[in-house]
Structure formats: C-alpha cells, structure tokens
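Input sequence (263 aa), recorded before submission:
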Amino acid sequence: MMRSLWSAASGMIAQQKNMDVVAHNIANVNTYGNKKVRAEFQDLVYQTLRDAGGASGDGTQYPQGMQIGLGVRVSATNRIFTQGPLQTTDNPSDIGIQGEGFFQIQLPDGTTAYTRDGSFKLDSERRLVTSDGFLLIPNLTLDENATIDSLVISQDGRVSDTPAGGEQTEIGQINLVRFVNPAGLHAYGKNLFLETAASGAPIESTPGQDGAGILTQGTLEMSGVQIVEEMVNMIISQRAYESNSKAVTTSDSMLETANGLKR
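Predicted structure, token format:
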C-alpha cells in the first residue's frame, strides 16, 4: 500500500481537528474572558531507507540520509492567555482584570476553580456569584440595607458598600491568583479552569502587587479571539484539507494504473 495514502489521510484528520478548534474560537468570539485556542501539529515517525553517514563505497559515506515521513498529527491545543480588550458596562458588579490573574470561584463540591470572567451577580443572600450561582472567593456579602449601586471595588481589590443612611463600610478583599503555566490549566467549561500538575500551584496576590493585574470596576474583559484571524485560519485549514484529499485521489489513480498493467 502506498505511504502517501496514509500520510494524506493523517493530514485530513489533523485539518479536521484544526477546523474544530477554529470553529470553537469563532463560537466564543463574544464570551467574556475567553482565550484563543491554537492547534499545534507534529510530524509522525519516519521510515529510514538509508542512514546519513552510512558507507557508500570503499572509504566513502553518504552525506545525507534517506527518510520518508508518514504523516502528521495534532500534538496539542495551546490556549493563549493574552490580555483581552476591556469593555465598559457601568454595572457595579462587573469586574475586569487588567493584567495577569484569575478570580477564585467555589464549585458546589468545594473545589476551587479559576476564571477571567468578572460578570458577577447578587444571589438571594446578597452574595457575589457567577452566572451559574457559584460563589466568588472570598465570600462577599452586601450589608442588608445596601444596594448593588453602592458597591465600590478599588483597583487593589478592596470591596466596600454603603448601607442606606450609613457610611461606607469595607466588606472584604478580592485577591487574584496566578499560575506559572496558565496554558496547563484544565478547561472545565462555564468560563472556568481547574488546577493541574502542569499549571503549577496557584500563587495568590493582592491586585497590583507581585505581578498580578489590577481590577477595574464596571468593565468586562472581552474575548481574545480575533474574528478576521480565525477566518484566515479557516481558509488555510480548508485549503490544506483539499490538498490532502487531492493527494489521496492522486495516489488512488496511481494504484489504479498499476492494477491495470498487463504483461
């Protein structure tokens, strides 16, 4: 069987997965705090027909080897944590991160998750939660007589509110968490990430200190996906898929010609 059939087939499979990644990016172009994902490729093993440096005659050797590659595969999907643009919302419970860092979120099972999505809301107990009702860590509860409009969040994470007829009172401190390798985080869904052995342990810092970003109240970080760039990647992936399918067709034609030979 011709090697080109399997090599081209591996190329089609790889480009199909690449197209899946591009489609995911485009689908999340308006997702708060979303980061672009990039498919990365790696060539497969090679069949060595002749080693470089092998003897070619008496006292001579081949200056180059002879190897034939056997295709390609997707080696990784790399999430790129570049800063997304901040959009002003004027909603006091929206918090954008300018710089590095993640908010800490408590899942129902007690696990700590991490997110760049700062679109927080108030639940029935006046606590700041995500759109799915997961608690922000630390637990921040507004005073009984305070409204959401009185919420004040400073750049360094200090949270205050003002009860009706009272004075401004500090109710908590929001810290950010950084990772040595944020690309190693596990994507949980719901705009959340989980710690892994590859990401390293979380490093908690006060916003604006030790490399952590600052908080900007009334803004949200938009998706880091550039739609024009993804459209170009889509075209490239489509053409690569077509080229590999043409290689399959050409290999099939060559086999057909060989099968049609007569003595």
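Checked by second reader. The first strand starts at residue 36 and ends at 43.
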